[in-house]
Specification:
Structural class: alpha+beta
Distance between the termini: 95 Å
Order of helices and strands: HEEEEEEEEEEEEHHHHHH
Shape: elongated
Largest sheet: 6 strands, antiparallel
Radius of gyration: 29 Å
Helix content: 25-40%
Amino acid sequence: MSSLKRSSVSFFAVMFVLSCAAATFAQVTLPRPSQKASVMQRIGVTDVTITYSRPGVKGRQIWGDPLPGQTAEGEATLDDQNKRPKNAPIVPYKHVWRTGANEATQFVVTDDVLINGQKLSAGSYSLHTIPDKDEWTIVINGTANQWGSFDYDPAKDTLRVKAKPQWLKENQEWLEYTFDPVTDDSAQVNIRWEKVNVPFTIKVDVPTTTLTKLKAAVGNAKPDDWRTPLQAGNFLLNNQNPADDQQGMAWLDQSIKVKETFQNLSAKANALYKAGKKEEAVALGEQAVQRGKTDKVDTTNFEKRLADMKAGKI
């Protein structure tokens, strides 16, 4: 083998080893002073997930006016005190803050929501804040993955809302995000650290979002899937606005068309009775019982209900 060939082989061998080593080091996970955390809240059918790192107070001054020349986050990461001017607040007022440590806090919503009344489309974002003593600005930025707020670009902001900080007596050592209180269509997000709590509200149009997802589920159902349109139809007829009853009934008919079962026949019988169509409901109810017996399904409870339908006791 010539010296040139040997050199080429050696070069590629070295590069292979180095690339393997680099890949190995890239997979190493080391402990951080500010540990990673994540909280998720489902509102209706919408998931809201906040992923962040939790700095500690550690006896330091957290909030305050910046010292002369101090920029956002003390010109250093929250975990690097050596580069921070002495007596400088960890989070200076009127500067953009990652609202956590390490990577910027990530904010993900699976559907369109309202943040303090302002629309935010489904997607992944970074969450920043601009703290001040009497008012905070909550910033939702379109760049989801970035380190801290050092490369934060306000031109990529998706929305900004105002929030009032609540000054408390109890100290919260580690930064914490919580969802509380929660209702059927909303959740309050609380940013809690040291003696400050900053709340903002997420609200979801649950009926509209649910209907959209039901339509997608039924639309994507396989040709032999009778259960999905049955479940969707039942939900609309029992839980949604009466204006959706026609769609709910159509989905029950779709389920029955795919395959007649005790479940979908009895469901439609109940829906017809609820709609005031007693004769049709009873006739279909008897058909449902017969189908159930043929398929060896326990129809006892429905037979009692059918008897009450006939007697007008429901």
